[in-house]
Design brief:
heterodimer; A: 353 residues; Ubiquitin-like (UB roll); five-stranded mixed β-sheet; three-stranded antiparallel β-sheet; 24% helix; elongated; B: 405 residues; alpha/beta; Rossmann fold; de novo design (two linked rop proteins); 3 domains; four-stranded parallel β-sheet; 11 strands
Chain lengths: 353, 405
C-alpha cells in the first residue's frame, strides 16, 4: 500500500492504482470523457487532469499510477482553467442543438459545462462539419456533436470485436470513420449499438428511438432480452406506457451476463412489442381458420394430438425441433421430454441450420 | 574557444559512410569490440560515467534509461531518425558522414541491454538515407562487425508526431502515429510490448567514441551537466548557414557571429529560435548563453534538436510565428483535446492578429490557451506547440500590438 494525499485527505491505495481511482476513493468527483472501466485506457480527453505538487504539468489521472507521497489537488485553479478551456474548445466545434438532441439531459458535455459554468466558447472561429449521412436503419452518426473520445472505436474493437470504425485524418480534421469512409452497412459493423452505449454525448444515437422521448422523459424498466437463451439484461425505455427504446445497464450487479452489451436484435428489434399483428394468445386451427384459445385449451389440444400420433404411428412419427430462443436448460428439458416421455431420438435444433 | 570540436564528424567526407572497412580504418567498431568484452552492467556504467544525455531534445541520461530495462526474452533497440523538426538536419548529416557510427552505437546499446534486434525509423522525406543505411548495414554485416545484432530500416510517412518515441513505436507496429501514455515507458514496455530503448541518431553516434575513449574522457568535454559535443544546424539570416559540431559549453552568440559569420547583408540581429520549430525565440539580451540543455532551460528556451534559426531585424516575428502555428495545426495527431483543438484555434488567432484584425483580448486568449496546452496536452507536441507564441509574446509583444489596427 502507498500513501497519497488528495485534496488534503490522506488515503492508502494499493501500488498500481491509477490516480483517478484514488481520487474517487477520496471522494473527489473527477470528470472524464474518454475513460471507461471496461475499455483500454486512452488518456486523451484530458478532462481528468489533476495537479500534483512538484510536477510542471498536470497529470491525466486516468493513466497515471499513484505514487507514494503524492500530493494531489483535483480542483486547483490550473486544473479548473484547463477543464474550462478544454470544454470551450469542444464547444467551439460542437453542434449546440441541445433542444432537439436525443441525449439532452444525459450528456457529459452538458453536465461538465454546467458544473464549470461554461456558457459559451471564446474560440469563435471556423466550424468544420463532420456530420455523416448514413442510410443504415439503426445508428445515427452526427459527428458534429462528436468530442473524439474514441470510446466507440475501442468498444467496437474490444467488446464487439467488429473493428468497423477508427480515426481517420489528423489534427482538427480527425474524425471517426469506417474504412474508406463508407457507410456502416458496407463495413464490418454488426449494428450492435455498443458505440451508442458508450458515447458520452449525442454523436451516436438510435434511429429507431429518434424523437420518441428524451432520457429524462422515459422510465427505465430492467428486464431480460427474449430473443435468445443468452439472457442479456436490458432496460426498456417506457414513455406513456409505450416502449420507445432500449438502453444498456452496465452495472454488473444488474447485468451479470452482458454488462450492457447487446446485439442488433436486443438493442433495436423491440418494435414487435406494440406490433398490431403480435400474437397475444395461443391459436388453434378450427375448420381451416386459426381461432384464439386459452393456454389450458391449447396445451390439452397439443398433448392429445401428440398422444394420438404416437399411438397411431409410433413414437418415431414425432420429432422435436427446438429453438435457440430458449435457454440451455429448456432445451435440455425438450430433448428429455422427447426421449423419456415420447420415446424417440428425433431431436434437432435451429442452431444446426 | 569559438572553435568547432568534431568527434562524430571528425572524418566527415574523408570516409565513405556506406563502407564499414573505411570506418574500421579510422578506428571504427573498436568501441563495440570493447563493449562486448565487458559485462553488460559495466557498459551501462561506462555510459553513465560519460554523462551522455539524449540528443533528441529531452536530454534524458542515456545510461540511466538503459538501466531501467528489465530482463525479458526479447528486447529492441530503436534509433530515432524521424528528424521532423523544421530546420533540423543533423541526423541526416550524421548518417551521410558517419552512418557506421550509428550502427555501432546501436550494437553497443544492444550489448548493454542484451538485444539482438535494432530498428532505424527513418523520416519519410529521406528515402536516399534509407538506401545509404541499407548499404551501410550490408557492409557492416559483410565485415562481420555487427555479430548477431541485426538492424532493419523502417520508413515513416511524414508525420511530425512520429518523432515522439511512443508514436514512433506505434508507427513501426503499423498503427496510426499517435503517442502512448507513459508510464509504462518504452524501456519497460515498448515495441510490440517488450522492453525497447529508443535513442536519437546523435546519441547512438556518440557511443562508439565513449566506449573507445572512456566515459571520463567524454564527461570532460563541454558543459559538465550535459557533456560532449552537439551538432547544430544553423539556418536563417546568417552568412554561413550550415552545420557545426561544437562542445556543449559553446556560446549561442558565437554560434551566430563566429561560426555563422554574423547576420547577412550587414543587418542587425532580431531573434534566434533554438531547438527547432517548437523552440523559444531568444532575444539579443540572452545571447551570451551556452547552448547546453540546462543553460538553455534557465533562459526559458530549449536546446532541443539543435536547430538554430536566426532572424534579422527586418523579419516580421508575428508572421513567422503564424506560419509556425500553421505547422502545428497541420501536424497535431488529433488524439488529445488540448492539442487537436488548441493548435487549430491558436493558428486561427495568429492569423487574425497577423492580418491586423486582432485585439488585446486575442493576446489574452492566446496566453491562456498556450498555458492550458502546455499543462494538459498528452505529449510533447501539444505541450511545446505554444512555446514560440509564448516566448514571442514575452519578448516581442510590441510586434503583436503593432499589428492591431
Amino acid at each position: 500500500m502507498i500513501n497519497v494525499t488528495i485534496n488534503g485527505k490522506e488515503i492508502q491505495v494499493p501500488r498500481g492504482t491509477m490516480l483517478l481511482e484514488a481520487c474517487r476513493q477520496a471522494g473527489a468527483d473527477i470528470p472524464t470523457f474518454c475513460h471507461d472501466p471496461h475499455l483500454q485506457l486512452a488518456g486523451s480527453c484530458r478532462m481528468c487532469v489533476v495537479e500534483a505538487k512538484g510536477r510542471w504539468n498536470l497529470l491525466a489521472s486516468c493513466v497515471m499510477p499513484a505514487e507514494n507521497g503524492m500530493e494531489i489537488e483535483t480542483e486547483s485553479p490550473s486544473v479548473v482553467e484547463a477543464r474550462k478551456i478544454i470544454l470551450e474548445l469542444l464547444l467551439a466545434r460542437h453542434d449546440l442543438s441541445c433542444h432537439t438532441c436525443e441525449r439532452d439531459g444525459d450528456c457529459r458535455l452538458q453536465d461538465y459545462c454546467y458544473r464549470y459554468g461554461v456558457k459559451e466558447s471564446r474560440f469563435a472561429g471556423e466550424i468544420i462539419h463532420f456530420s455523416k449521412e448514413d442510410p443504415n436503419p439503426f445508428i445515427e452518426r452526427d459527428y458534429d456533436k462528436c468530442i473524439m473520445c474514441t470510446k466507440c472505436v475501442r468498444v467496437c474493437k474490444e467488446i464487439t470485436g467488429a473493428e468497423a470504425i477508427n480515426v481517420k485524418d489528423r489534427g482538427h480534421h480527425a474524425a471517426i470513420s469506417t474504412a474508406f469512409d463508407g457507410n456502416l452497412a458496407d463495413s464490418t459493423c454488426v449494428f450492435c449499438g455498443q458505440c451508442i452505449m458508450v458515447c458520452p454525448v449525442g454523436a451516436l444515437t438510435s434511429k429507431v428511438s429518434m424523437g420518441k422521448g428524451k432520457p429524462y422523459q422515459v422510465e427505465k424498466v430492467l428486464t431480460t432480452c427474449t430473443y435468445c437463451g443468452t439472457g442479456c439484461t436490458l432496460e426498456l425505455n417506457v414513455k406513456d406506457d409505450t416502449v420507445v427504446g432500449v438502453s444498456s445497464n452496465r452495472d454488473e450487479r444488474y447485468s451479470p451476463v452482458n454488462q450492457g452489451a447487446l446485439c442488433v436484435k436486443g438493442r433495436f428489434g423491440w418494435d414487435f412489442i406494440h406490433a398490431e399483428d403480435r400474437l397475444t394468445t395461443p391459436l388453434i386451427r378450427k375448420n381451416g381458420e386459426l381461432q384464439p384459445a386459452s393456454w389450458d385449451e391449447a396445451l390439452d389440444f397439443a398433448a392429445a394430438k401428440l398422444k394420438q400420433i404416437k399411438e397411431a404411428s409410433g413414437p418415431d412419427a414425432l420429432a422435436m425441433f427446438a429453438s435457440a430462443r430458449i435457454t440451455n436448460e429448456e432445451n435440455y428439458l425438450a430433448q428429455k421430454f422427447m426421449r423419456a416421455v415420447i420415446g424417440t431420438n428425433n431431436v434437432d435444433h435451429c442452431a444446426r441450420l | 574557444m569559438a572553435e568547432e570540436k568534431r568527434i562524430i564528424l571528425e572524418y566527415a567526407d574523408q570516409i565513405n559512410p556506406e563502407n564499414a572497412g573505411e570506418y574500421i580504418k579510422v578506428g571504427g567498431y573498436k568501441g563495440l569490440e570493447k563493449a562486448r568484452a565487458m559485462s553488460r552492467k559495466d557498459v551501462i556504467e561506462e555510459v553513465k560515467k560519460s554523462g551522455l544525455r539524449g540528443r533528441g531534445g529531452a536530454g534524458f541520461p542515456a545510461g540511466l534509461k538503459w538501466s531501467f530495462v528489465p530482463e525479458a526474452p526479447v528486447k529492441y533497440v530503436v534509433c530515432n531518425l524521424d528528424e521532423g523538426e523544421p530546420g533540423t538536419y543533423k541526423d541526416r548529416i550524421i548518417c551521410q558522414k558517419n552512418a557506421q557510427a550509428v550502427l555501432e552505437g546501436m550494437a553497443i546499446c544492444g550489448t548493454a541491454i542484451d538485444s539482438t534486434k535494432g530498428y532505424i525509423y527513418c523520416r519519410g522525406e529521406y528515402p536516399y538515407v534509407v538506401d545509404l543505411l541499407n548499404k551501410a548495414i550490408d557492409s557492416a554485416k559483410e565485415a562481420g562487425v555487427l555479430g548477431d545484432f541485426d538492424i532493419e530500416v523502417r520508413m515513416g510517412a511524414g508525420a511530425y508526431v512520429c518523432g515522439e518515441e511512443t508514436a514512433l513505436i506505434e508507427s513501426i507496429e503499423g498503427n496510426r502515429g499517435e503517442p502512448r501514455f507513459k508510464p509504462p515507458f518504452p524501456g519497460v514496455e515498448g515495441l510490440w510490448g517488450v522492453p525497447t530503448i529508443v535513442n536519437n541518431v546523435e546519441t547512438f553516434a556518440a557511443l562508439p567514441y565513449i566506449l573507445s575513449n572512456g566515459g571520463e574522457w567524454f564527461a570532460g568535454i563541454g558543459a559538465p551537466k550535459y557533456p560532449g559535443t552537439k551538432i547544430l544546424t544553423l539556418t536563417g539570416d546568417v552568412n554561413n548557414a550550415t552545420y557545426f559540431e561544437v562542445p556543449t559549453d559553446y556560446n549561442l552568440r558565437d554560434v551566430i557571429y563566429t561560426l555563422g559569420g554574423g547576420i547577412k547583408n550587414g543587418k542587425k540581429f532580431k531573434a534566434v529560435q533554438v531547438g527547432g520549430t517548437s523552440g523559444a525565440f531568444i532575444p539579443e539580451q540572452n545571447l551570451n548563453t551556452p547552448i547546453d540543455f540546462d543553460s538553455m532551460s534557465a533562459i526559458g528556451a530549449a536546446l532541443g534538436s539543435g536547430a538554430v534559426l536566426v532572424l534579422d531585424e527586418t523579419r516580421d516575428i508575428v508572421d513567422v510565428v503564424t506560419r509556425i502555428a500553421k505547422f502545428f495545426e497541420h501536424e497535431s495527431c488529433g488524439k488529445c483535446n488540448p492539442c487537436r483543438e488548441g493548435t487549430f484555434r491558436a493558428f486561427e488567432l495568429m492569423e487574425i492578429i497577423n492580418d491586423g484584425l486582432g485585439n488585446a483580448g486575442d493576446l489574452d486568449t492566446l496566453k491562456i490557451l498556450g498555458r492550458v496546452m502546455k499543462n494538459a496536452s498528452f505529449c510533447g507536441l501539444g505541450q511545446a506547440a505554444p512555446i514560440p507564441i509564448q516566448s514571442t509574446l514575452q519578448h516581442f509583444e510590441h510586434e503583436y500590438k503593432r499589428k492591431f489596427l
